[in-house]
Amino acid sequence: MGKQVALFVQESNRKKSDAKVDIGEKDIPKPGPGEVLVRINLRPVNPSDAYMVNLTYPGFKPQTFPAVPGGEAVGKVVENGPSASRFPIGTRVVAVPWNTYDGDGSWQQYTAVPEDVLIPVPDNVSDESASQFLINPVTAYGFLETLKVPEGEYLLQTAAGSAIGRQLIVMAKLRGVKTINLVRRKEQAQELLDIGADEVIVTSNEDVVARVKEITGRRMAYAAVDCVAGEMTGTVVASTRDHGTVYVYGLLSGPTSTVGAGNLIFRNVHVTGFWMVTWLEQLGDAKAEKLGEVMDLFARGIIVPTSGKKFPLEQANEAIAESWKVAKEGKVFLEG
Q: Is domain 3-132+305-335 annotated with CATH 3.30.110.10?
């Protein structure tokens, strides 16, 4: 069927801090029975993608190399394989998941995927938004579905100025859940208040635990989510109610979390990890329903992810570098 442009990870990249992707060509696949060929046109660059490049992301386990990274994208159906008929040619779709785990991810122009993993994109949802459907919005939705914070109670989150942090604020507001949002830079505070944050704490100059006590009348946060780890996890746990739950879902400060044992023993705060991939697997037959509910939030204009610079596939390494910048304007993309 011809050739396509693709980005490749080599086995020699493993655990290298300066690992790069290579640009090259590969065959355009022919969709098999029950499969759909998708022409991918836009891909966000997420931290998980960068970790795929040096082969340290648990959701990317290719057995052969070179391998194609990339966990999110939007594209159009260009061919249906035998017995695949749900999506007319030209339908815009996202996949949950793409073939990322086995090393055939979204950082290429064409991929064949089972039609059962595809979700159609509503006409009023932009490619920029649709391409970001999975990792952040579905994770935030999973938090709220599983933590079950009652209406009027507080959910505490770290790195609240991030894309997922802003989406969680909006989703929580929709359920009547209040949010306490931790940020490092004070200029982010008003931005979050403007989109519906109830409280913002600037960690660089405020005592987090003392402020949470003040905000909640000493009841503390009902539950919390932390993507920073390190010593921040201990601060978050100390700010959460007795018998509350803290999800650790990121490693921004490093691979370990430090938690005061007293909070675990005497206050019975439950600290556990949350990975969207595992949650989706556990949903079983309810998975399609939950994903449909998230896409409905996009269609209703409730979730509109921020968008930033776009780079051609040939400039993928520059795009990765841009994605790590602290004050970048919106999500970085690879297009083409």
A: no
